Amino acid sequence: MTARPVDGEEFALVAMPTPPAMPARRRRPRNRREQILTVAACRFGDLGYHRVSMADIAAAVDIGASALYRHFRGKQDLLVAVVDDTLTELEGLVDDRADDLPAIVDALAHAALRRRHFGALWDRDLAYLPERDRHRLQSRMRALVSRVADLVAADAVGPAGEARLRAHALWAVLASPSRHRVDRDAARFAELLGQAAMAAVRAPLPTEPTLAPRQLPGAKPQLPVSRREAILTAAIRLFDRQGYPTVGLTDIGAAAGIAGPSIYNHFASKTEILSAALARGNEALWLALHHALTTADGVEDALEQTIDSYVTFAVNNPAMVSVLLSEVINLPAEQHDTYQRSQQAYVNEWVALLGRSQPHLPEPEVRLLVHAALGVTNDLVRVRLLQGRDRLPTEIAALARAVLGLGTLSQS
């Protein structure tokens, strides 16, 4: 309030307008970069790299896009930073614990829960990085696997030549939470993951193959004459190698040996090709499961046959495994939900079998172990360095059994 003259001699008190309040200055958190990396990892992991924009990430962190670009030059740079940051933590956890494999596994299990999106992100989105960055990151991961393999060789039963196989299985178990949303108390979750990973390290492996390898020595595989089949086969292979969003119909036509426009004689769109590929994979799994259930002699035998059927499918169709794991998110919403339900129903059959076989385990823990066993299978069939092992299908099945806590069940 202030006084001012009125009519020359009298004064009156007049209210002055209150000046507008100055907005409080927002201070940038010291951990802003870490916040961005955490949000980006979650968005990339949940939605896929190609479905996330820098604007989405900026909004989730509550900053402007220009502020985000002060930290990262672009989306590829951000993805590189997310992977770099995770690998740096994993490397530190391994290096800080000398040669104590159980302690390393326990630390890695807790890290896997803190960085739950990393496994799916690594598996699906690394292909979208520039070749130089991709190779550098892959080299770091190979070094991590080799470091753990050396420790496994000193800890595990069996020949030293099995160490790399077991090390990959260990990492697959730890990455498995990225493929599901099962939740437990963090300490118990990490304990179960660690136990499953160490089971893969220490389980005895068969010395003779009981499941056929992907291709017998001297085999002469033949290709179908159907053009539709050629298109589908080529598309699955390309989706696996490059990721669905970066593959065009022209690419598929060239790989199938036909002109790109000719694809429209068989499929209306690229989405229809993806849908057909996913339908084929899902139905193949359900047919194999049906056979296992209807020919089984009890719950344990049904579970054994189910494990063997899945391993056989995965060994013979590694590219299809990748598509089933990573590309459902690229379908339109209605189709996406249909395939998600089908995949979830398939997992539920495993959960029901293991739950009846191991009735002492709570259902969420059964489900966690099922995803870990599936993860071991899905990962090992796609590791190139392991493909020359003549007992690989049988070894994968044995590792899956160990992860499920089935011990040394007889193998048919």
From TrEMBL:
Presence of the UniProt keyword Transferase in the record: no
Domain HTH tetR-type, chain residue ranges per copy: 30-90, 225-285
Organism: Amycolatopsis pithecellobii
DNA-binding region: 53-72, 248-267
Coiled-coil boundaries: none
Keywords: DNA-binding, Transcription, Transcription regulation
Protein name as catalogued: TetR family transcriptional regulator
Top-rank taxon, per record: Bacteria
Molecular-function GO term, any one: transcription cis-regulatory region binding
